Backbone:
């Protein structure tokens, strides 16, 4: 009998042969058995019936798989494109975009740099996107150039510090620059920040949604109250901004996503992956089964661009 990693690899190769096709019921259940889909739903491992809701119809996603949050750091587009075909997961390649004040190995800061990024991805079978940085990012580009993108992703992880300057909340010095001593007060500001970005920035997709700074991460369920979740997701629904289900962070948690679905938000899968750790959508597929996600619930890169609202 093949080992679990071998079964998952065999499944990935089978999916890849279908040119980003849909998962069959058998294949989806095979993947679910390999990653423990039943654990999320609170059901016992091993029973195929876990994928059969009341009414007898097994869940099968009716949408192609894509990973909207892929970075090329340390790899080539050829390597990544080959992996995409092998896994049967279409990748959305994002590069940081904004002023050079944003400190990353590469930041696109003008039309010429963005055009070069688009040219590199042309004809590679990937979506062409950027990860917007800070609230001044769009001033770097013309509207005509931004219109060439399949989508714009942004997250709330860069946050105004005590002095109003940008702070990367994941860095170890962040607690010194952002007051986390009162978690409830910070959360109110953090939710306000989410709402500001969603409502004011010309973005299509909110990445790494509901992530918290490391000192607060173990209080997720306490701090992400239903009221705070609804403020974020209702704003996203109003402005047509989709929410990323992050396979790497395993966020947002199920409770957050249930509310988002109730409010009519669309979803996208993402890993924030670097080669070869992209396209690993285990958590996303768990959520898809639990919430019974259908095509109507999913963001469509290149089609669902930001509407003015």
Residues:
């Amino acid at each position: 009998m093949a080992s679990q990693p071998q079964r998952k690899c065999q499944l990935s190769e089978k999916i890849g042969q279908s040119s980003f096709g849909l998962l069959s019921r058998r294949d989806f259940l095979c993947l679910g058995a390999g990653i423990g889909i039943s654990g999320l739903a609170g059901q016992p491992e091993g029973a195929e019936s876990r994928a059969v809701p009341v009414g007898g119809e097994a869940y099968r996603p009716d949408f192609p798989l894509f990973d909207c949050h892929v970075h090329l750091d340390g790899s080539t587009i050829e390597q990544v494109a080959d992996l995409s075909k092998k896994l049967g997961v279409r990748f959305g390649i994002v590069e940081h975009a904004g002023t050079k004040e944003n400190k990353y190995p590469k930041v696109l800061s003008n039309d010429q740099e963005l055009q070069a990024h688009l040219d590199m991805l042309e004809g590679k079978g990937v979506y062409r996107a950027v990860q917007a940085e800070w609230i001044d990012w769009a001033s770097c580009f013309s509207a005509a150039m931004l219109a060439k993108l399949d989508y714009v992703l942004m997250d709330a992880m860069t946050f105004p510090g005590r002095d109003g300057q940008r702070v990367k909340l994941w860095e170890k010095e962040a607690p010194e620059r952002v007051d986390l001593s009162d978690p409830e007060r910070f959360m109110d500001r953090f939710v306000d920040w989410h709402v500001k970005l969603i409502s004011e920035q010309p973005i299509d997709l909110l990445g790494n949604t509901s992530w918290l700074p490391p000192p607060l991460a173990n209080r997720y369920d306490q701090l992400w109250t239903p009221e705070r979740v609804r403020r974020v997701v209702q704003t996203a629904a109003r402005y047509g901004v989709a929410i990323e289900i992050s396979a790497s962070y395993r966020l947002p948690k199920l409770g957050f996503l249930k509310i988002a679905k109730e409010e009519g938000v669309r979803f996208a899968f993402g890993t924030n992956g670097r080669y070869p750790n992209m396209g690993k959508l285990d958590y996303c597929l768990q959520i898809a089964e639990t919430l019974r996600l259908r095509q109507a619930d999913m963001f469509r890169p290149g089609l669902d661009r930001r509407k003015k609202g």
The first helix runs from residue 4 to 16. The radius of gyration is 19 Å. Confidence is low (pLDDT under 50) at residues 1-55.
